[in-house]
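User: I'm preparing a small set of examples for a lab meeting where we compare how different chains pack in three dimensions. I only have the primary sequence for this one, and I'd like the structure in token form so I can line it up with the others. Please keep the answer compact; I'll paste it straight into my notes.
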Amino acid sequence: MHQGDLLFEIDPEDFQARVDLAAGQVQNAEANLKQQTQNLQRQTELYRTRVNALQDFQNAQDSFEAARAQLTSAKANLELARLNLGYTKVVAPLEGYVTNMNTSSGTYVTAGNQLMALVDTNSFWIAGYFKENQLPHIRAGQKALITLMGHYGQPFEGIVQTVGWGIFVSDGSGSSSTALLPSVSQTIDWVRLPQRFPVRIQVVGTTPMPLRIGQTVSVAMTAEVEPMGAPNRPSLAGP
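Assistant: Understood. Below is the structure token output for the 239-residue chain.
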């Protein structure tokens, strides 16, 4: 799927009708403003020649301002209707792959409900989980060797972007604020392990195979660190 490609279209008839209605309201407001403008001009001349009272002149001014405000509101409603009509065509905002497509032609959709997922091909990254006693040996800029499960003969390189500064504590001492932290299981087969912290790794260059969200990888850290200020390389990574 390329950026700008049509993903799906919502039936535009209702939205087009709202545009037509809003356009009619703009025309009505324009006609009313024209009428109030002419009335104000007459009342101004009559008040200048002392034919009409000040109250009539002020009433004409108020009616003119109200008509101008109604026209502004009508134009805003028309613009909103046109925006909603434009939203009936949903296009891909970026390069990626469409997945979890659970709708078909004629399906009724509700605002806010997800219809599909678009996986950004340029947003993949690796999440490696390392024991807390390994963290002193890991730092940003460090190189890593990454191997996908099922592709053991095709390793590729990555660079550490960040090392996690916290995980969710599930022993009852955590609060609602720490619930935003990643939750990492500490127990495997009834053996309590050291805590593991997420390390985010960006892949360098092009991978030898397409990446998919949720794939299992093995990460081996190296001693080499990418020098600070090095030029950015083209990158593609997977979680």
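A couple of notes for your slides: The chain has two helices and eleven strands. Residues 144 and 221 are 4 Å apart (CA to CA).

User: Perfect, thanks.
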